[in-house]
Amino acid sequence: MKADKFFKFFLFLCGLLIIILAGGIFVSLISGSFYAVKSFGLGFVLGKIWDPVSEKFGLLPFLTGTFLTSILAMLISIPFSISIALLLGVYYKDGFFNKILSYTSDLLAGVPSVIYGFWALYFLVPIVRKLEMKFNILPYGVGIFTSSIVLSVMIIPFTSSIAKEVISMVPANLIEGAYSLGATTYDVVKKIIIPYSRSGILAGILLSFGRAFGETMAVTMVIGNSNSMPENLFSLGNTMASLIANEFTEATKDIHLSSLIYVAVWLFLLSFVINYIGNWIIKKLSVDVSK
Q: Can you list the positions of beta strands (E) in 91-207?
């Protein structure tokens, strides 16, 4: 009995520590950004100019760059992620191909982001530059589109891994019953596996979107690091995370440093909102197995 109470108390302390840690991070960010909050207020979000020399700071170009790269990366990754999950969870549940694909996916998930950045610089950027030349676009090679491709490759293993686990949890009696009624594998996937596991698949997509939203190093290396508002998907740009990584060590003025921390506050808040909305959507789309 005493052991049970002690264990429960220990778990409570661990949970409380996480809450205190999250609150402490937010409070420290607010404290560090107070100068910028006082100077710019909420107008900081809609500001289009980021000029440390004239001490004018606005978040909108980096907010736009963050959402453009993250959303485009998510859209690119979804077909590949679901395809891999279905291959491993339905068509090739075991065997040599399953082991090779699973190992490769796990390997990609563990590769440091700086490696993806180097790969993009030496392999992906020349390809994108040739593509831009064919369509009469300024051939930078780097930019929003390139960083989105890198992000999509980075998040595919996470989405596919979660989706595969959810697919494997579909009750076998439902699948066997469908086969006994003459359904093909395609019918089973379309009418049973996807509807049953849609909330779990969506969870993987949203978690991957959260990772892409805050990714720093790989994006910093290939996005072009421009503080201007991106005009199209091939424009140079910056995300909130890449801006902080580029300028934090060079910020010598208090207002510049405080503005960077203010950017971090918005990144923190938006990440929280995205996760909250994701959990809400998942609950709404969850399949009630008892029905």
A: none
* Per-residue pLDDT tens over the stretch 201-252: 887 888 888 888 888 889 999 999 999 999 889 999 999 999 999 998 888 8
Contacts of 210 (CB under 8 A, 6+ apart): 271, 274, 275, 278
The C-alpha atoms of residue 101 and residue 200 are separated, in whole angstroms, by: 21
Return the residue matching tokens 């700086």. Answer: 114
Distances (CA, A) of 114 to 30, 76, 103, 110, 264: 29, 21, 21, 12, 21
CB-hemisphere CA count at 13 Å for 142? 18
Give the burial class of 222: count Cβ atoms within 10 A of its Cβ; 0-12 exposed, 13-18 middle, 19 or more buried.
buried
Structure tokens at 126: 């020349």
Q: How is residue 192 annotated by DSSP? A: I
The angle subtended at Cα 248 by Cα 245 and Cα 249, nearest 5°, is 105
**Ordered structural domains, the chain, with CATH:** 17-285 (1.10.3720.10)
pTM of the model: 0.88
Residues written for the chain? 291
Q: Do 168 and 88 form a contact (C-beta atoms < 8 A)?
A: no
**Which residues is 56 bridged to in the sheet?**
51
Strand, coil or helix: what is 237?
strand
Cα gap 283→205, rounded to integer Å: 15
Is 51:259 a contact under the CB 8 Å cutoff? no
